[in-house]
Design goal:
alpha+beta, 2 domains, five-stranded antiparallel sheet, elongated, FHA_dom, 36% helix
Length: 140
């Protein structure tokens, strides 16, 4: 008589495969959740067609106090950044709000700690006042 494969062996394999699939979906969701600010920032930067180096004049943290079950906590909501850049014989001074992530705060502090405070500015050639500071690349 031929040896038959018992049902509980297949049942265990099915449970193992379902568990692996659930773990993979969970990992993808976690990576997506924590990478969303970078993806969104990349999407916003892709709208602009021109690049110039500009000078960051100042930035201020705008914080909010959040009440949780463990007590109140201070959270940086956004940064107000003031910068200037030149394009086609015109100088623009722009006030912008940047997401309050730890990485943006670190890069802004890094830019302002340098002697010249230069950062990359992306803008539309049709309307240079529509611009955004690009903190992904900092001039050394």
């Amino acid at each position: 008589m031929a040896r038959k494969l018992r049902f509980y062996y297949i049942w265990n394999i099915k449970h193992i495969l379902v568990g692996v699939i659930v773990i993979l979906i969970s990992l993808i969701a976690i990576v997506g959740f924590y990478s969303y600010p970078r993806w969104y920032n990349f999407y916003k930067l892709s709208r602009y067609d021109k690049v110039a180096w500009g000078k960051v004049l100042s930035f201020h943290e705008k914080s909010i106090i959040r009440q949780t079950q463990y007590g109140s906590g201070l959270k940086v909501d956004h940064f107000k950044v003031k910068y200037t850049f030149s394009y086609s014989d015109s100088t623009y001074i722009i006030n912008e709000e940047v997401n309050g992530t730890f990485l943006n705060g670190y890069r802004l502090r890094n830019v302002l700690s340098k002697q010249d405070s230069i950062a990359k500015i992306r803008f539309l050639s049709s309307d240079p006042s529509d611009s955004m500071v690009d903190l992904t690349e900092i001039k050394e």
